[in-house]
Task: inverse folding
């Protein structure tokens, strides 16, 4: 993926911000000296200029409010030294110094001595940036070396407690002016170092004349500050005052109050920062979870079960089944129809019996008629012969009164009286009936009548 | 003895009739012939009757199978 | 012996009828022929009857297997 | 022996019907043909019936697996 | 042996249906095809039923494991 | 074996959803895919749930310690 | 000393928040980070409250030993 790489690619803003953070962390306040050039004072009342030396130049600005305490006018060519915050102006990518306090270089005898000591110690490297210790981000315990009475200690306590209610302060009361001051301040620094229970020392004093600040411009105090293993923050006098101690200190604050502010972060802010980070953390993970939840839900909703596929397939199978059934049904129907038609034809073509029966009956009739005719004709013939025979019946004359006499029992027709004797039995056949009689007398002759 | 057939009997009857028609026969013979003729007539009639009976018999058996009555009109 | 077919029997019957119609037969022979003719008639009738019975049987069997309606209109 | 198929039986039946319709057969042969024809019809009927029965059987078995309603409208 | 997939079975069923619809099969073969077709239908239906069951099971199983409410609106 | 990470499971689920949405899968494969998809959903849901629980736990723990009794739990 | 790590912890917390806000972390790692972040939050909060509010005065006894007495603030 491209993400790992992209984490190494800065946006311009990002880079600029990081640089700004580094610069401002490292050089929150600096004492600087140089010559003014490119001076400009537009209508706003702010002053813009460059500060240069032989080899380098830096952009500077002094706002109207800070300018009010100036006892001299800023102009090109003027050598100055002053306290400034280093910042980076993001819109242009420039770094610049914002001056809090400016003084012209060189003024008065005390000033001279101050300058000499400053130069001497500076040459020794007491003021070198390499020796400056970094202040703890959140000090456990703060030792405040200042007058036990007076506004300075009250201000510091007040501000410290306001910024960090449960802060732990150790007050180391010292004289801050007069002869004992030198020694007491040095001792105090050493004692705190000896005790090693504090993370940071605030060396503070209210404002005063240059003479009143003598202790803070002394070499031994400067050396004691330099020698301290515990970071020292100075808050001496007013904003405009700067002492050797300020130069020797790890960080210089313009006033005691400022020193307290510098040393202690505001607890409320820290809590808010952590709370914000916690909130961001929770938001990030919650959003991530929500995003993934949504994504899983989305995918889940898109993960369609193949139910529709199954339903469609079922329909297809059923359709196939129906088509198959219809095809077979149709075939059976056609087969049945064809068979039915052929069956009817077959029944129609069954052997015809009536004509045959009629034929047989006809022949039978012929046979019968022929036979009948035959018998009839024969009967006729016999009857005719019988009629003719009857007509020739020899006994027909009897009807006319003739009769036939026959001997008994010989039944011989008696043609001659001689053929019989008296007392012979004779039968006489009449037209109707017969008579049996006996011969009583015979009359011979040829003639009968 | 072979039975006289119908035709033979008929022929004999016809012969008797012819002989008698000739008229030359004495009564005695004529009577004999006549008697014989009558016998022949009877014989022939008998044969015809029995033939008829037989036909009726046959026909009756057939009628059953034919259903109709071909000889009813007799 | 092969059974006489209906057609053969019918032919024989026809022959008998023709012979008898020719009229030249003596009575006894005519009766014989008649008798034979009647037999033929009976034989033919028998065949026709049994054929009819068989057809009825077959048709009825078919109707049964064809179910109720297919041949109702016949 | 391979069973006669429905189509073969139907063809044979058609042949028989044609032969019978030509009208030239003697009675006994015509009856024989008729008998065979009826047999063929019955055979074909049987095949159709058993086919139908088989379909019903198969379909019934299937109905279970197809569920209640899909073929109700048929 | 690898199980016939649903798609393969469906293809086979389709083939059978087409063959049957072409009407070119003798009755007995058509019945055989029908039988095979019914088997395919049953096989396909079985697969579809079990698939359906499985889907129901899976879907129910998911709901169960997801608890009561999160996917109610789905 | 290394546990599948949430992102891997999500990717697989996405792949499955896309494949199934393409619609070209045979039935058996579609079912398999669906099954795997459901498993992935369950797996992802489980991870999200347990993550949520863990967060709730951590947050509650933090609240406790941030609330009334700042250092009791330490 | 413990207090010096407050800044470290805060830096780490900031780093974690930035990383998580970048959104590129896998879920499991994000949870890990969150866990660590919560620890850092707890840790930082603890540290902020851990000091006891007091103002003392450094004293040096006659023997040169250092001591602390409550500072009278007025």
Result:
């Amino acid at each position: 993926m491209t993400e790992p790489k992209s984490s190494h690619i800065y946006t311009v803003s990002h880079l600029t911000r990081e640089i700004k953070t580094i610069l401002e962390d490292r050089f929150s306040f600096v004492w600087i000296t140089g010559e003014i050039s490119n001076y400009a004072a537009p209508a706003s009342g702010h002053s813009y200029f460059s500060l240069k030396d032989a080899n380098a130049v830096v952009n500077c600005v002094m706002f109207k409010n800070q300018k009010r305490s100036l006892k001299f006018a800023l102009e090109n060519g003027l050598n100055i030294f002053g306290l400034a915050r280093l910042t980076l102006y993001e819109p242009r990518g420039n770094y610049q110094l914002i001056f809090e306090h400016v003084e012209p270089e060189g003024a008065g005898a005390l000033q001279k001595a101050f300058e000499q000591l400053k130069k001497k110690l500076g040459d020794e490297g007491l003021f070198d940036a390499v020796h400056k210790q970094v202040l703890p981000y959140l000090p456990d315990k703060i030792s405040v070396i200042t007058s036990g009475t007076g506004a300075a200690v009250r201000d510091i306590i007040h501000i410290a407690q306001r910024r960090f209610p449960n802060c732990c302060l150790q007050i180391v009361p010292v004289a801050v002016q007069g002869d004992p001051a030198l020694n007491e301040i040095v001792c105090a620094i050493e004692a705190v170092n000896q005790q090693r229970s504090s993370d940071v020392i605030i060396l503070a004093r209210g404002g005063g004349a240059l003479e009143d600040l003598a202790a803070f411009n002394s070499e031994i105090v400067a050396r004691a500050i330099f020698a301290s293993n515990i970071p020292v923050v100075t808050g001496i006098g007013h904003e405009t005052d700067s002492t050797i101690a300020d130069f020797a200190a790890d960080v210089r604050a313009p006033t005691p109050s400022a020193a307290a502010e510098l040393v202690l972060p505001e607890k409320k802010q820290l809590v808010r920062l952590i709370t914000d980070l916690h909130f961001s953390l929770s938001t990030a993970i919650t959003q991530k979870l929500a995003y993934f939840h949504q994504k899983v839900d989305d995918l889940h909703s898109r993960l369609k079960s193949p139910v529709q596929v199954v339903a469609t397939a079922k329909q297809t199978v059923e359709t196939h089944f129906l088509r198959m059934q219809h095809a077979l049904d149709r075939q059976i129907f056609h087969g049945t129809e064809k068979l039915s038609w052929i069956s009817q034809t077959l029944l129609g073509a069954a052997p015809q019996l009536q004509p045959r029966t009629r034929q047989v009956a006809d022949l039978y009739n012929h046979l019968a008629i022929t036979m009948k005719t035959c018998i009839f004709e024969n009967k006729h013939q016999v009857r005719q012969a019988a009629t003719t025979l009857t007509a020739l019946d020899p006994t027909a004359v009897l009807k006319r009164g003739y009769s036939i006499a026959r001997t008994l029992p010989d039944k011989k027709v008696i043609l001659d009286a001689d053929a019989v004797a008296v007392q012979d039995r004779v039968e006489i056949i009449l037209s109707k009936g017969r008579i049996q009689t006996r011969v009583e007398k015979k009359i011979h002759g040829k003639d009968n009548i | 003895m072979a039975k006289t057939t119908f035709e033979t009997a008929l022929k004999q009857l016809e012969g008797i009739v012819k002989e008698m028609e000739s008229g030359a026969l004495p009564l005695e013979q004529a009577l004999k012939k006549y008697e014989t003729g009558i016998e022949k007539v009877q014989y022939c009639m008998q044969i015809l009757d029995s033939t008829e009976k037989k036909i009726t018999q046959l026909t009756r058996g057939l009628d059953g199978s034919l259903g109709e009555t071909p000889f009813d009109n007799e």
